[in-house]
User: Fold this.
Amino acid sequence: MSWNIELPIIVRTLINDWSDNPTYSDERIIQVLAVSAKYVQFDAVLDHTYEVDVTNNTVSPDPTSETDKDEIFISLLALKAACIIDQSTFRTKAAMEGLKASLGPAAFSVGGSLAGWSEILDKGPCALYNDFVDIVTGKQIGRAHV
Assistant:
């Protein structure tokens, strides 16, 4: 299986984007994964090195290759991509929070779900990514993780 098939499935699961009309196209998720691969390589020194081309959305060699599967890179990459997507959603929600518009008897209002998204950032994929990077880089050796 190729990384650009396997990893979008993992990311969609992490961000709960499995509807008949998903929020993000496969192409968009692959683009975020390519950007995430750059960040993962900056954040953690792993056993394998990858050539990442964010312009062409490629990661080489394929980390999902059955002959040399890099589970740590795959996990970090999926968590980082989910984190970036969640942060994007949070920014969009923050920009819309409290938005009200009215025209005659018609009114438009957006309620407050921002606190829930803040909680997702604090305890979701972003926090898991940071914890995992700390474990991989040895910053939290001997510290219990839940």
The mean pLDDT is 83. The first helix runs from residue 3 to 15. The CA atoms of residues 44 and 137 lie 6 Å apart.
